[in-house]
Amino acid sequence: MPLLDRNGNAEDRWTRSEGAGIGNIPAALVPWEVLVEALDTQEPAQVIGVLIPNNVPFAELAPFLPRLALVAIAFPAYADGRGFSLARLIKRAGFAGEIRASGPLIADQFAYALSCGFDTIELPEANAARQPVSRWLHARDSFSATYQRGYGESGRNVLDQRRAARAAAPIAAE
Amino acid sequence: MYRYDEFDERFVRERVAQFTDQVTRRLDGSLTEDEFKPLRLKNGVYLQLHAYMLRIAVPYGTLNSRQLRQLALIGERYDRGYGHFTTRQNLQFNWPKLRDVPEILGLLADVEMHCIQTSGNCIRNVTADHFAGVAQDEIEDPRPTAELIRQWSSAHPEFSYLPRKFKIAVTGAEADRAVIKAHDIGLRLRRHPDTHETCYEISVGGGLGRTPMIGKVVRDYLPKKDLLAYLEAIMRVYNLEGRRDNKYKARVKILVHEIGAEEFTRRVEAEFAQLDGPSINADPEEVARIAAYFAPPRYEVLPAVSNTLEAAKAANPAFARWVEVNTVPHKAPGYTALTISLKPAGQAPGDATSEQMRRVADLAERYSFDELRVTHAQNLVLPHVRQRDLYAIWQALGEAGLATANVGLVTDIISCPGLDYCALATARSIPIAQAIQSRFADEARQREIGPLGIKISGCINACGHHHVGHIGILGLEKRGIESYQITLGGDATENAAIGEILGPGLAAEEVPDAIERIIGVYLAARSEGESFIDNVRRIGLAPFKAAFQETARAAA
């Protein structure tokens, strides 16, 4: 399936494995249900990622994070926004691997997804076909700044920019 | 009032460009209708019964004259010369064309307005007390909080695809005029008894619709500085755990109900404890920057009572009655807050023509420091009027058909657009409102009855707030015939209560009789100075039910 990162088309180094038998796949993306089993057979040179439904409680996922290099969160429909909050929690826990949104997202969500901590978006073929990469890059830059602190690149939000402006010109406030 | 800075201006312009692009993509097919729908909703564009409807945000109900004139212009150029003020302090146009919407958005942006999040499963336009900044019972002005939330909730990366819509209301007064207990989140500014600092009392899980619930308090005293972090915690719990399997069970009230207020509070507090407040909250300078825009205007020093007003009242009883019914005391001596009723007999509640909007804009500019408000009861307010100017204002309003003296009375009916406009409606509401208005047209009789709130919804979604009407009317459809269910004892204030159903549904033409009988019970049973709702609370539902059943029997 087509994969995007912040800068456009990305190459997917992950191989999906339906069951726990990951053999010697170098980067194996396994379903949540078989994660424990797959980790049991992990070879030292292997990296493992997991595809989770968006209703997995973060507390159940958290213990596995140190052993994972990828967490892909399923978006069953683009308007089901649970994945955005899950990504935030995973990021907040200090997860350094890749966080991926997997499902029929639309380009208009690209900036939100990146701000919430997603690194990549994995799209079904049909959705990717209707939304060329240029569309995603355009949508990524729709807003020069939004109002929420703590999302996306630090300091880019409106509140921090206002604060910076105040610091630079304290007298101009009146 | 708040003025955009360069960031706000750019944000709204970028939003217009984004929506313009979305419309283009819908028209060229790169967005499917299913994909486009949530996007247009987030920008207030509904597909209604006859046409597209555009809902314009009036943040916390505050407007200036320039903005109202622009709305008048849009109504004339793109609609049929009028607009409809809603129970969420917004304005709706019922007949715009989709291709015109981007242009309308541009005109709105020219006057610092937008349609952002007036619909869709996101945090909606925040509402507040329409007497904010002027009410005598106010502890602190709720508008700075409402503006901070407006900004914070705009295009929120994490909370724009919620299980369902999410409404926040703020009040800073003792009396609740913002119906905060019927909101997903209700905020009330109050003083901490020990520290005397203003804090927020936070209620969650109120709402009307098919499962009406009164909000539960989850925090008694939240320090003001922690507001955004606390809201983030509530929203995250809801976004992750709110039901998505059934849209009728997806509001936060259902989550609060199913897991219990205590467990919900525990989860919110646990999440809040994980958050780094200083990196999320607005810093004090930012809060002060916003608050400065809401500083009181430069009032003249005036005596508490205006002799000019008293003389005019003595000379003109009709004027005196209008003053008595439509004005409330003001913080500043010699001033008053004036409510302009948009409920003249025979009109759709909340409708105003472009000409009327211009008239009100002129009056606001001349007599009310260029400020006006929209109320959730679908009226307009001139918040800072010198008492001595009331007579001139009354005359000017009268010429425009806007001097109805019925604020808070039986004909000041809240009503949704109903089946005449709305695609969701199961019954008409406006004609019911009109029938009741004409039944009680006699002004002396209205004053004799006193404060009484009738609220009408044309379907179970309850946009007309019928659950919290002293008398609520819900229009349903039974085997192809409109049927109206009457509830009694609802209350939208700090004593929030959900009304109880009196009996079987009635046909449209029976509704005025039923209202008449209910009011008859009250008039016979009331004690000196007792209002309708106080009377209902004191004597209970039984006598009203008995009278109601006579109506039902008479009709059968």
Task: Name its key features.
heterodimer, A: 174 residues, alpha/beta, TIM Barrel, 2 domains, 8-stranded mixed β-sheet, 30% helix, globular, B: 556 residues, Sulfite Reductase Hemoprotein, domain 2, 4 domains, 5-stranded antiparallel β-sheet
Would you kindly provide a written description of the structure presented here, covering whatever features stand out?
The complex is a heterodimer of chains A (174) and B (556). Chain A has 174 residues and is an alpha/beta fold. Chain A folds into two domains: 3-142, Aldolase class I (TIM Barrel); 147-174, no CATH class. Chain A is built from seven helices and eight strands; from the N terminus they run E-E-E-E-H-E-H-E-H-E-H-E-H-H-H. In chain A, helix 4 packs across helix 6 (133-140). The longest helix of chain A is centred in the middle third of the chain and has 11 residues, at 82-92. The N and C termini of chain A lie far apart (55 Å). With 556 residues, chain B is α+β, with helices and mostly antiparallel strands. Helices cover 38% and strands 17% of the residues of chain B. Chain B starts with 5 loop residues before the first helix and ends with a helix. The mean pLDDT of chain B is 95. The interface between A and B is large, with 42 and 45 residues.
